[in-house]
C-alpha cells in the first residue's frame, strides 16, 4: 500500500522537481535545523567525542574485517539461545522467508518495527502480494504508509510532511485500515501521537507475528538490539508469539562490550538525545517472557559487494543515525525522495552504488549529488569518509563508461585535453587560440568578475549545464609561457 | 550451494587479502561529575519523567501516593507492599491493558544518560507488564546507580532480555518536535531510594 522508488528519474531531474516544491523546502529547512541544533548541544556535552568516534569506528571496522568468523559465531550463539537462523542472498529470498514463517502460523497480518533492512527489500509489498498485511507501527512510518507515500529520511521517514498534512492523512486514511482518527483531531503533535496510540493499540494486542530489524547483533552472545523512542518497538518485540528479525550482515559486532561506544554515539547523533527512550536487547527465546518463537534472517543483498570495495567498505560501518542527512546542504534543499532510495542523503549517495553497482542511470547519478563540502564526514559517529567514497564512486561511474561506443561529452573533452597537453607544439597553438578568445571576450563580455576580469555568460550547447549556474572567466590574453619568453622570467 | 554457504563464501572472497587486525582503542570514560544520585535524578527529570527521592522506610508510602486509586500490577517479587495490586502470574495483553499502572524495581541506573535498565528478573517482571500499563513507577536504589553506559554494560547479563528506559515514551516524528507519550507508558515515575536518609 505504499509507493515504490522503482522507475525514479536520475538525481538532477528529481532534484529540480523537488526544488520547485516550496512547502517541502520549508518543512525540511525547519526540521533539519531543529535536529542539527539538538545534536550539536548533546555532542558538545561529551568531552571526548572524537575519541568516542574513533572507538565506534574501530569496533565496526574490526567486525567487518573478520565478518565471516563473526557471522558463524552469531549463528551458533543465536541457535544455542533458541532462535532459528535463516540466510538470504537477496531481497527476494528474505521476503520469501518472512512470508513463509508468517503463513505457517495461519495469520494474514504482521506488526512491524521500523526497520531500514525491511524497507530496503520491499518487504511490505512482497507480503501484500502474498495476502499478508504489514502494519507499520513507528509514527513516521505510519504516516508514510497511510499517505501511500515514500520515505524521505532514514530516521524520520515522514520528515517532508508538516503537522497539518499529517492530520489530513490521519483523518482521511485511518478508518480504512482500523480504528479511525477522532473527529476533533487537531494538528498538535501530541494529539496526533495520541491518535496513533489509539489506532495501533488493537493491532499490538492481537498480533501473533511481529517483524523487526536490528540496530546491532552481538556475535558472542547472540543478542539483537533495537533502539527506538515510542514503545512501538517494545510492543512488537514483546507481545506477539513469533518474532522475525531481518538483519543485514553488517550489523554484527564481536562482543557485548563493543556495544558501549555505539550506544553512546547513536542517540546523540540521531535524535540529539543523551539516550533514546527505549532500547531493547534480547538473545533468542526467554521462557515465559516475550515471543517463544524467534527467527533471525541474515541478509546480504549487495553487502558483500560493498565489502569487496576497499574504499567503499567503510560505508558498511553506518549505524543509520542520519546525522549526515541533517547537515547536508544538498539534502536540506531537495529532500529524500530525489535520491530514489530508502537510503537518501550523503550515506545513500554512496551506499546505493556500493550495494547495487552503477549500471543504471539513476544509481550512477547519486555520487554526483554532493558538493563535497565534507559536513557529513565531520558529523558521522563512525567516521565514514563519505566525500572520499563519493569521489571514488564517481571514478567507478566514469570507468563503467570506458567501453561505450558513443562516449559521453566529458570523456571526449578529457581525451581532447590529454591530446593537447601531451605535446608542446599543440599546447602552444591551443594557448594562442585561447589568448585570442580572451581578447575578444575581454572586449565584448558584459559580465565582470570581482577584480575586473571578464567572464562569459551562459554558454550554448554541452557547456550550458556547467555555465548555467557558474561564471566562466575569460581566458587570459597571454599565456604563462608567452609571458616568460617576453619578460625573461620576470627579469626584464 | 545453500544461501548460508554462498554468503559466507562471498564474504571471504570480498575480504581476500584484507588484514583482519584493527586496533580498537578503548572508549573514553566520562569524567566524574560529582554525586551520581544527584546527576541521575537531574538527568531522569530532563526527559520529563517524575523523580521522587525518599528514605527506604518511606518507599511504600511514596508508591501508594503516586498510585492513588490506579489499578496496579506488580511483579512476583517486588518486595514492597502495594495494597490492591494484582501480582502478575502470566496476565494476557488484554488483561494488562486494563491495568493503569505497574510498579517495578530496576537492575541498574545510569547517571550520565538518566537511564534505568530492567533485566526483567522477578523484582521487575516480564517485559509486557512494564510496557502495557500507562504509568510506570520504578523504584531504584541509589546504590544501583552507575556513572555511565560502559559501567552498565559491564554489570548487565546479555543472556537476559533487557529494556533500557530513558524517560517516558516519546516521539519526534512530526516536525522533529519532541512530544512525550506514544505507545509505551506515558508517565514514568522514578522513586530514588537513599539509604542515608
Automatic annotation (TrEMBL), chain A:
Biased composition (Basic and acidic residues): 478-492
Domain 4Fe-4S ferredoxin-type: 315-384
Pfam name, any one: Fer4_8
Domain named Lactate utilization protein B C-terminal: residues: 400-486
Keyword terms of this UniProt record: 4Fe-4S, Electron transport, Iron, Iron-sulfur, Metal-binding, Repeat, Transport
Ranges of residues in domain LUD: 72-299
InterPro entries, per database record: 4Fe4S_Fe-S-bd, 4Fe4S_Fe_S_CS, FTHF_cligase-like_sf, Helical_ferredxn, LUD_dom, LutB/LldF, LutB_C, NagB/RpiA_transferase-like
Recorded superkingdom: Bacteria
Disordered: annotated segments: 448-492
Name this protein carries in UniProt: Iron-sulfur cluster-binding protein
Lineage, top ranks: Bacteria, Bacillati, Actinomycetota, Actinomycetes, Propionibacteriales
Gene3D superfamilies: Alpha-helical ferredoxin, NagB/RpiA/CoA transferase-like
Amino acid at each position: 500500500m505504499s509507493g515504490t522508488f522503482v522507475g525514479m528519474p536520475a538525481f538532477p531531474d528529481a532534484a529540480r522537481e523537488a526544488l520547485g516544491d516550496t512547502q517541502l523546502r520549508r518543512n525540511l529547512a525547519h526540521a533539519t535545523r531543529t535536529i542539527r541544533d539538538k545534536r550539536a548541544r548533546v555532542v558538545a556535552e561529551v568531552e571526548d567525542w572524537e575519541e568516542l568516534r574513533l572507538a565506534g569506528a574501530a569496533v565496526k571496522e574490526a567486525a567487518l574485517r573478520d565478518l565471516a568468523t563473526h557471522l558463524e559465531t552469531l549463528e551458533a550463539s543465536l541457535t544455542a539461545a533458541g532462535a532459528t537462523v535463516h540466510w538470504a542472498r537477496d531481497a527476494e529470498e528474505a521476503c520469501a522467508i518472512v512470508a513463509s514463517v508468517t503463513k505457517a502460523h495461519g495469520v494474514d497480518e504482521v506488526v512491524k518495527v521500523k526497520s531500514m533492512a525491511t524497507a530496503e527489500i520491499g518487504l511490505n509489498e512482497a507480503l501484500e502480494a502474498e495476502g499478508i498485511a504489514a502494519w507499520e507501527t513507528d509514527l513516521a512510518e505510519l504516516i508514510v504508509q497511510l499517505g501511500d507515500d515514500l520515505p524521505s529520511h532514514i530516521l524520520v521517514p515522514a520528515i517532508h510532511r508538516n503537522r497539518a498534512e499529517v492530520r489530513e492523512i490521519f483523518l482521511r486514511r485511518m478508518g480504512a485500515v482500523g480504528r479511525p482518527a477522532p473527529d476533533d483531531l487537531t494538528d498538535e503533535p501530541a494529539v496526533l501521537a495520541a491518535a496513533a496510540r489509539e489506532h495501533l493499540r488493537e493491532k499490538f494486542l492481537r498480533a501473533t507475528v511481529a517483524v523487526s530489524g536490528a540496530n546491532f547483533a552481538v556475535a558472542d552472545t547472540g543478542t539483537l538490539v533495537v533502539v527506538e523512542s515510542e514503545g512501538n518497538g517494545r510492543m512488537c518485540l514483546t507481545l506477539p508469539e513469533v518474532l522475525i528479525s531481518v538483519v543485514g550482515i553488517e550489523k554484527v559486532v564481536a562482543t557485548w562490550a563493543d556495544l558501549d561506544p555505539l550506544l553512546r554515539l547513536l542517540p546523540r547523533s540521531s535524535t540529539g538525545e543523551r539516550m533514546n527512550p527505549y532500547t531493547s536487547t534480547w538473545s533468542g527465546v526467554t521462557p515465559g517472557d516475550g515471543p517463544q518463537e524467534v527467527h533471525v534472517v541474515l541478509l546480504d543483498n549487495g553487502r558483500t559487494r560493498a565489502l569487496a570495495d576497499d574504499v567503499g567498505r567503510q560505508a558498511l560501518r553506518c549505524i543509520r543515525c542520519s546525522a549526515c542527512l541533517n547537515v547536508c546542504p544538498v539534502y536540506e534543499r531537495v529532500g529524500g525522495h530525489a535520491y530514489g532510495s530508502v537510503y537518501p542523503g550523503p550515506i545513500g549517495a554512496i551506499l546505493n552504488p556500493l550495494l547495487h553497482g552503477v549500471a543504471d542511470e539513476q544509481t550512477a547519478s547519486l555520487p554526483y549529488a554532493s558538493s563535497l563540502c565534507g559536513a557529513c564526514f565531520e558529523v558521522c559517529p563512525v567516521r565514514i569518509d563519505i566525500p572520499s567514497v563519493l569521489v571514488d564512486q564517481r571514478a567507478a561511474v566514469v570507468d563503467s563508461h570506458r567501453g561505450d561506443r558513443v562516449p559521453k561529452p566529458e570523456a571526449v573533452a578529457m581525451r581532447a585535453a590529454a591530446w593537447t597537453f601531451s605535446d608542446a607544439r599543440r599546447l602552444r597553438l591551443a594557448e594562442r587560440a585561447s589568448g585570442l578568445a580572451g581578447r575578444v571576450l575581454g572586449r565584448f563580455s558584459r559580465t565582470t568578475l570581482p577584480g575586473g576580469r571578464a567572464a562569459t555568460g551562459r554558454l550554448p550547447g554541452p557547456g550550458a549545464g556547467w555555465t548555467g549556474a557558474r561564471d566562466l572567466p575569460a581566458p587570459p590574453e597571454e599565456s604563462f609561457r608567452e609571458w616568460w619568453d617576453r619578460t625573461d622570467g620576470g627579469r626584464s | 550451494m545453500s544461501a548460508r554457504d554462498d554468503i559466507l563464501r562471498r564474504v571471504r572472497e570480498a575480504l581476500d587479502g584484507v588484514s583482519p587486525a584493527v586496533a580498537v582503542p578503548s572508549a573514553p570514560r566520562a569524567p566524574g561529575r560529582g554525586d551520581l544520585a544527584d546527576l541521575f535524578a537531574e538527568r531522569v527529570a530532563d526527559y520529563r519523567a517524575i523523580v521522587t527521592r525518599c528514605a527506604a522506610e518511606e518507599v511504600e508510602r511514596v508508591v501508594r501516593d503516586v498510585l492513588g486509586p490506579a489499578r496496579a500490577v506488580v511483579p512476583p517479587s517486588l518486595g514492597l507492599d502495594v495494597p490492591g495490586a494484582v501480582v502478575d502470574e502470566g496476565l494476557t495483553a488484554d488483561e494488562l491493558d486494563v491495568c493503569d499502572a505497574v510498579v517495578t524495581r530496576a537492575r541498574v541506573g545510569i547517571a550520565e544518560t538518566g537511564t534505568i535498565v530492567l533485566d526483567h528478573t522477578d523484582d521487575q517482571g516480564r517485559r509486557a507488564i512494564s510496557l502495557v500499563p500507562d504509568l510506570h513507577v520504578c523504584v531504584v536504589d541509589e546504590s544501583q546507580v552507575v556513572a555511565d553506559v560502559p559501567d552498565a554494560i559491564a554489570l548487565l547479563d546479555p543472556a537476559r532480555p533487557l529494556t533500557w528506559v530513558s524517560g517516558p515514551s516519546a516521539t519526534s516524528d512530526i516536525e522533529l518536535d519532541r512530544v512525550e507519550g506514544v505507545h509505551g507508558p506515558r508517565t514514568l515515575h522514578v522513586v530514588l531510594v537513599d539509604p542515608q536518609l
